Give the backbone structure.
Amino acid sequence: MIHRLQRIQRLPVGLSEAWDFFSNPNNLDLITPPDLGFRISSEIPSKMYEGAIITYQVTPLLNIPVTWVTEIAHISEPHFFVDRQLLGPYRLWHHEHHFREVEKGIEMEDIVHYALPLWLFGTLANSLIVQKRLQRIFDFRRNALIDKFGDLEL
């Protein structure tokens, strides 16, 4: 089963500042909960490009390290990029990042489509653990971005 997570957040920054921040993988650590043990384990290109491969180490459950390899699949600077998992904990991970100018800042929209392995077990794991965990990760991200940039009410 394919699941969907969507989040919208407005930030009081310009489009180019938002793009510079979100298109730089080095900033992922700032918006990822510390208990995920997130660490980039590959070299990062100086500028994001389609086809870029980025390797991470994460500890999503039970403090067990997992290698996560993503590819920057599509870019339309400064409005849109997609990262997708090539190797990692999900059967499918497709994360769209959208940026639109709004009054006094930008609106950022994340759309994540994901699927877990092991069919019925994966569906059960999503209901019991994964969906809540992803919500918590994106809640942390929202608060970290408010701390860094401020907030625009939706």
Q: What stands out?
A: The two ends are 31 Å apart (CA to CA). The beta strands are 3-11, 39-40, 53-58, 66-76, 80-87, 92-102, 105-115.
